[in-house]
Amino acid sequence: MIWKRFQLGSPISKVTDAVTVWQTERGIIEISRDTLAVPITLEDQRRGYVFHGQGRLLLDAIVETDEGAVGESVEKQLNEPFLMIGDDEDVQKQLIEASDEDLEKMNYGSQHEFMDRAEDLCDRFFKGRTRQDHRFSANGNCFIFAFQNQTDKLDILLSKDFKMVYKATGLVFVSNRSRVVLKSPSGLVCSNKGKSVIIKS
Questions:
Q1: What is the DSSP letter of 17?
Q2: CB-CB contact of 35 with 17 (8 Å)
Q3: How far apart are CA 11 and CA 32, in angstroms?
Q4: Phi, psi (5° rounding) for residue 34?
Q5: Percent of the chain scored above 70 by pLDDT?
Q6: pLDDT tens digits, one per residue of 74-131
Q7: Is 132 helix (H, G, I), strand (E, B) or coil?
Q8: Which candidate, 41, 62, 49, 48, places its Cα nearest to that of 175?
């Protein structure tokens, strides 16, 4: 499988304090103290982590139009394992090796159990991904997140500089500074420098 170019590394760690792993003017992702982390590596270089603990995603998916604000803020509690590819310097500063007790707090009977869940998430995310996706993840100020949802699919967040794409069940939100696109069950909204087009379902 393509993702096998990526590998899960070691050791299993935990964060010693709450960490903001991503933040822009449009959103923020935070993980709490004691969140478990296992590194994802590519060609022996760390490229990100699979996390499992308590965290949250906040995202401003609101579009300002001539007819008023359309859309709503997204708030997602991150209680299931999720994946991050991107700059991990802030996370790395907060990591220490996890103990068996730390794993037990997250209902893992062993390190093997956690690694199995992390690998399952990677299998689901990387399956069918192309080398272009890999280049995106390895260059500059780029982030890729994959979150599990209640429909047993993955919500995806891509972020690079001022560009952001968030795709979840029933929602696609694309932002590039003043240009914004929102697609939801209620319709499609496109906005560019204060001018907007609304197509209702």
A1: S
A2: no
A3: 19
A4: 75, 5
A5: 92
A6: 999 999 999 999 988 889 999 999 999 999 999 999 999 999 999 999 999 988 665 4
A7: helix
A8: 62
Which are the contacts of 120, defined by CB distance < 8 A and separation ≥ 6?
A: none
Residue 183's Cβ-side half-sphere holds a number of Cα atoms within 13 Å equal to 8
Distance of CA 94 to the CA centre of its chain: 19
| Sign, Cα dihedral of 6, 12, 14, 15 | negative
In angstroms, the CA 194 to CA 127 distance is 39
Q: Which residues touch 49 (CB under 8 Å, ≥6 apart)?
A: 37, 38, 39, 40, 83, 84, 88, 91
Average pLDDT, the chain: 88
pLDDT in tens, 139-155: 557 899 999 988 888 99
Kindly report the CA angle at 9 between 159 and 94, in degrees rounded to 5? Answer: 65
Rounded to whole angstroms, the Cα distance separating 201 from 42 reads 43
What Cα–Cα distance (Å) separates residue 89 from each residue in 21, 85, 193? 9, 12, 34
Per-residue confidence (pLDDT) for residue 139, from 0 to 100: 53
Of the candidates 200, 163, 164, 167, the one whose C-alpha atom is nearest the C-alpha of residue 185 is 200
Contact 13, 37 (CB under 8 A): yes
Task: Report the run of H or E that residue 195 belongs to, with start and end.
Answer: strand 195-200
